Amino acid sequence: MAQVVLSDVRKTYPGGFEAVKGVSFEVPDGSLCVLVGPSGCGKSTLLRMIAGLETISSGEIRIGARRVNELEPMERDIAMVFQNYALYPHMSVFDNMAYGLRNRGTPKQEIEARVREAARILELEALLDRKPRQLSGGQRQRVAMGRAIVRKPSAFLFDEPLSNLDAKLRVQMRIEIRKLQRSLGTTSIYVTHDQLEAMTLADRLVVMNGGGMEQFGTALEVFREPASAFVAGFIGSPPMNFLDCTVEAPGRLRLAGGAELAYEARGAAPRPGAKVLAGLRPETVALGRAESGGSSPMLKIELVEELGMGRLVHGLIDGTAFTVAQGPSDAPPKGETFAIEIAPGGVHLFDAQSGTRL
Amino acid sequence: MDSRAIFSGRALPYLLLAPQLLVSLVFFYWPAVQALWQSFLVQDAFGLSTEFVWFENYAQLFKDSDYYYAIGVTFLFAAIVAFLSLGFGLLFAAMADRHIKGAQIYRTFLFLPYAVAPAVASVLFIFMFQPGLGLFAHLLQAAGIDWNPALNGMQAMILVILAATWKQISYNFLFFLAGLQSIPKSVIEAAAIDGAKPLRRFWTIVFPLLSPTTFFLIVVNITYTFFDTLGIIDTATGGGPNGATETLVYKVFQDGRIGSDLGGSAAQSVILMVLVIGLTAIQFRYVEKKVHY
Amino acid sequence: MVEHRRLGNLLPHIVLIAGVVIVAFPIYMAIVASTHDNAVIANGQMPLTPGPHALENYWHTIIAGTGKTTREPVGGMMVNSLIMALVITIGKIAISIISAFAVVFFVFPCRMAAFWIIFVTLMLPVEVRIYPTYKIASDLNMLDSYAGLTLPLIASATATLLFRQFFMTVPKELVEASKIDGAGPLRFFKDTLLPLSLTNIAALFVILFIYGWNQYLWPLLITTRDDMQTIVIGIKKIIDVHDALTEWQIAMATAVLAMLPPVAVVVLMQRLFVKGLIETEK
Question: Could you state, in order of their start, the residue ranges of all structural domains in chain B?
């Protein structure tokens, strides 16, 4: 049980490629922190640096109160669950879980007790004598977790553990992992590229892009107050819509086609004429009047996808793709062009150049 | 093969197979049958008449102390060469598996002995150990050992073992390396995180996972020392001194050359044939059971 | 190796350098010996560094004899070796590939029998059938000829097995598409199968060339004339002479020359070599 603290951690490869650029965050003791981002953003590299499988170019990583930069993986008191499970193919499930304890010279009876306990928690008792190749994907996954929890480490590290499972199993295992982590109370760091998995599992999210950390916060914080256009567009499904606008006056935006949008001005107001990106979440937008006239942006509908529990209305505003998500009680659109309506508070503003939140 | 992806053709397949079947029948099967047949015969002293004697030739062999001696020589030779060349092959492969600078160069060098003909390898070692002018002969003499493989049976054996091992290290190295590289890196990392130090990791994880390769190599190495080393022996010691380096295969070669006992020589060949069939069968049976990850 | 310790990174280098020394030393000694005068060598005074007689020795070895022993200049032997190796290699590949093609892509009576006949030859290395095979070759008047040197070695089960295994991985859709396009079996073979097999053929070429070049027992028996000798058995004759008369510098030069082509092949085509070895042993 321990906090994990990263301070300005960097990783540069010999050729000069910067895989991780100055990342800092604190994982509270006992929480599940998810590193999420697209492929190549450096999240796996960062996890491996925490594990000790990659060297740290600069910065510091602390597990518990200990600086671990110079420590080998086995000295860091961590356990890791790999994407392809990495079970020992020639050992039985029992031996797979006992291996770590045997290496540390744990007495035989204690090994027996701990392995059986873990097997009970993960419902693996019937499988203890089997070899990995006789198990299904989900079962192997659980053995991998069993191997980790048996060691009672200070922190768990998960490297995309659900990626190799089919969709239905993934949802099931996601819930099990969450419940397990809560009941054990072990600090966990979890890597995934799936934003839904990230949102549902995380106590804290670290959204990464291109080696850097874009935002650190709870799932709700990241969803409601995205720090950048990237985070806004990455988190949430269906993804946020973006419209190019210029600021007319504090609280008013003008779109390329001349329409106007009201936003809730807070903090320092951007100067009039500044180019911005307006972010609108599909589920916060409603379809208004069918005729044009008036200053609201007009959506020209191209396709309606019926979901049963609502529908997705895809179309164009001023030539830019735009989606509105309707709930089950909203009337399906009849017609081609509709004005869109959105509460001013639901408009996120981002600098058109840097993408940072305004 | 799937029945849909087939060409129809009456004569063509036979034509295509003809060359190989022809050569196989003429140069492989017919001689083998002849050897089998001859092993049941005994020729008289002048080679004029032959008599069918069932298994008498075989019985003779098994009463022949020379034959048992050859068996002993062969097994000793096989065991030592296999042990040394497998051991070194594994050691070098384990070291070359890491991501170190120059790995490619090391590997290229370690593959070289495979390219050298056994007979040529033998010549290289003869040279280095030649009493009077070889480097190692000098060193041995200086150490007080009376070195002369032409006279000393055990020394002749050592010379031949060295040459054969030297050659075989390459082959084992290559296959061990391939075996090591097929172990997923994440399994090794998991073991490291699980608290296993490098040496312990090697013996508890890597070596067991390498066992299909190891078993395969043991069989191949045994086959190699039984048969492919004829060139080495012929060049280095000629089977001597006094049969000290005469393996079973070499004995067949020698006895047949002299030509005095056709039946006995044929019987030896047949016994060796049975041995090869056994070894090959084991090899193919086992290769199919490779561990899957 | 997962750990990042300083000393741990030194060990592989030490071991591997020792390995390279073990592996390269005998070859190095031969090269050095081939550049010295025989007198220096025979007196046991050969230094560890190359000497000044390289050109002279190799000239004597390859082109002209030295007159001390009657034997063929090595140049001729190398030509024999080359012809033998190339014919065996190309022959084996050609025969095996069409056999594998027949067995995989056709259905005909005795198909499996034919396959087994080929497969079992794996278990009959030349060493166990040496004298009967010699007798047959002699009866067919093949002694001291290129045909005799190559034909008996030309049927190889390993190559056939390799090609068969590979052909079985060719998607059946490819065959069906060819048929729809109106291609007969031979056209399919030439236009589709052969191009697909090129890497395998190249890898096999490397392995078989080394095998052919390094042949010892069979050439020894089947050639008696000096001018038909291959370089690998030629070496034995050079050393066979009584100790005092052995021209070590020539012997070593011959050894170096005997090693040259296979070593060159392994070094230059290393990737194919590795692939070839692994594929043929499965």
Answer: 51-290
220-279 in C: which are within 8 Å (CB) of B? Answer: 220, 232-233, 235-236, 239, 243, 248, 251-252, 255, 258-259, 262-263, 265-267, 270, 273-274, 277-278
Residues A197/A322, Cβ–Cβ less than 8 Å: no
ipTM > 0.85, yes or no? no
- Look up residue A337 and give its two tokens: 């062009």
Asked if pLDDT for residue A249 goes beyond 60, the answer is yes
Rounded to the nearest integer, the mean pLDDT of chain A is 89
Q: B175 with B216: CB under 8 angstroms?
A: yes
Q: How far is Cα A158 from Cα A32, in angstroms, rounded to an integer? A: 10
Contacts of C158 by beta carbon, 8 Å cutoff, 6+ apart: C122, C280
pLDDT bin (cut points 50, 70, 90) of residue B290 is: low
Q: Map tokens 């993934």 to a residue.
A: A170
Give the sign of the dihedral formed by CA C3, CA C7, CA C12, CA C15.
negative
The two tokens of residue C154 are: 């030309």
Residues in chain B: 293
- A283 phi/psi in degrees, rounded to 5: -80, -10
* Whole-angstrom distance, CA of residue C114 vs CA of residue B20: 10
Q: Assess contact for B8 and C176: CB atoms under 8 A.
A: no
User: Which residues fall within 8 angstroms of residue B274, CB to CB, at 6 or more apart?
Assistant: none
pTM over 0.90: no
Residue C207 structure tokens: 């392995």
Q: Are C219 and C193 in contact (CB under 8 A)?
A: no
| DSSP secondary structure code for residue B225 in this structure | I
Strands A347-351 and A275-280 turn out to be: antiparallel
**Cis peptide preceding A238, ω within 30 of 0:** yes
Q: Average pLDDT, stretch B265-290?
A: 79
Give C90's pLDDT tier (boundaries 50, 70, 90).
very high
Chain A neighbours (≥3 Cβ pairs under 8 A) are B, C
Residue B264 at interface with chain C, using a CB cutoff of 8 Å:
no
Q: How many CB atoms lie within 10 A of CB B43?
A: 17
From CA C237, how far away is CA B80, in angstroms rounded?
29
**Domain B51-290 listed as CATH 3.40.50.300:** no
Phi, psi of B242 (to 5 degrees): 55, 40
Going by C-beta distance under 8 Å and a sequence separation of 6 or more, which residues neighbour residue C153? Answer: C88, C92, C126, C212, C215, C218
Q: Which of residues 84-123 of C touch B (CB under 8 A)?
A: 95-96, 98-99, 101-108, 111, 114, 117-118, 121-123
Q: Where do the DSSP E strands lie in chain B? A: 41-43, 50-52
Coil, strand or helix at B197: coil
- Element (H or E) spanning C120, and its range? helix C111-120
Residue at B105: amino acid letter: I
d(CA A336, CA A291): 9
- Rounded Cα distance between C4 and C12, Å, is 13
Q: Alpha-carbon torsion A64, A65, A69, A73, what sign?
A: negative
